[in-house]
């Protein structure tokens, strides 16, 4: 049976969905936000995500887009937003299945089972390969993508990456990151950190055509959400 992660901020609904999946024979775990999901996936990859759109820190469309580009996971969107425009956006962002709340346990279990079978068939060979490790080379000041492409880092970019990858999968606070990259003003409201992250994301994507897995953790800081090796 599939390993499923349920991303739903309503704790009662999350438990209902988990109970349904457990009764259907699936191995399932639940989280209440995007940041929690990235943290779990960094250490325990899953087969399928059941994903709400209206999350407290990152919307489900953005998460689906990132998962589709960087992993081989199946994506089921489970949301109260049932308008045609929402459904279309969900599929454009990478959803395999789009379900509108309320949904019966039988329907959800059937969707998960069907998607699980599809993921196991040869027709899924067009999907991206499973997530592999990034590598941070502190001696050569470079970041190496899972596909082997290199990005040369500036001193501040290197220090940022060192701090984030020192606890990959766990959020690092803004104050800690500001101090790590050498900004004298370590006030959490200092926007220099956000500008640095934006530039590094753009740089990595332009030079490697891959998304840098640094995720924003609302009211906390940032998290490096993928496996990483540090030299």
Task: Write a structural description.
With 231 residues, the chain is α/β, with parallel strands linked by helices. It is built from eight helices and twelve strands. The chain has helices spanning 11-23, 34-43, 60-70, 84-93, 105-120, 155-165, 174-180, 192-208; strands at residues 3-7, 27-31, 48-51, 74-79, 97-100, 134-137, 142-144, 150-152, 172-173, 214-217, 221-224, 228-230. It is elongated, with a radius of gyration of 18 Å. The two termini are 37 Å apart.
Topology:
Layout: E1 3-7, H1 11-23, E2 27-31, H2 34-43, E3 48-51, H3 60-70, E4 74-79, H4 84-93, E5 97-100, H5 105-120, E6 134-137, E7 142-144, E8 150-152, H6 155-165, E9 172-173, H7 174-180, H8 192-208, E10 214-217, E11 221-224, E12 228-230
Parallel strand pairs: 1-2, 1-3, 3-4, 4-5, 6-12
Antiparallel strand pairs: 6-7, 7-8, 9-11, 10-11
Helix pairs in contact: 3-4, 6-7
Please summarize what this structure is.
By secondary structure, the chain is an alpha/beta fold. It has helices at residues 11-23, 34-43, 60-70, 84-93, 105-120, 155-165, 174-180, 192-208, and strands at 3-7, 27-31, 48-51, 74-79, 97-100, 134-137, 142-144, 150-152, 172-173, 214-217, 221-224, 228-230. It has two domains: 3-126, Response regulator (Rossmann fold, 3-Layer(aba) Sandwich); 134-230, Winged helix-like DNA-binding domain superfamily/Winged helix DNA-binding domain (Arc Repressor Mutant, subunit A, Orthogonal Bundle), CATH 1.10.10.10.
């Amino acid at each position: 049976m599939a390993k499923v992660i349920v991303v739903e901020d309503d704790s009662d609904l999350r438990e209902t969905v988990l109970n349904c999946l457990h009764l259907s024979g699936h191995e399932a775990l639940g989280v209440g936000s995007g940041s929690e999901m990235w943290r779990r996936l960094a250490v325990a990859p899953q087969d399928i995500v059941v994903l709400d759109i209206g999350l407290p820190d990152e919307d489900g469309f953005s998460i689906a887009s990132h998962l589709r580009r960087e992993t081989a996971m199946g994506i089921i969107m489970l949301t109260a937003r049932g308008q045609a425009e929402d459904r279309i956006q969900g599929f454009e962002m990478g959803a395999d299945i789009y379900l509108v709340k309320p949904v019966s346990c039988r329907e959800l279990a059937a969707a998960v089972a069907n998607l699980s079978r599809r993921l196991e068939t040869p027709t899924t060979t067009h999907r991206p390969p499973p997530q592999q490790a990034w590598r941070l080379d502190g001696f050569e000041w470079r970041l190496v993508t899972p596909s082997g492409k290199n990005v040369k880092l500036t001193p501040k970019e290197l220090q940022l990456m060192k701090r984030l990858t020192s606890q990959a999968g766990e959020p690092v606070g803004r104050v800690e990151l500001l101090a790590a990259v050498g900004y004298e003003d370590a006030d959490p409201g200092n926007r220099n950190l956000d500008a640095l992250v934006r530039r590094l994301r753009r740089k990595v994507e332009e030079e490697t055509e891959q998304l840098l897995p640094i995720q924003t953790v609302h009211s906390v800081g940032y998290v490096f959400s993928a496996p990483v090796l540090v030299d």
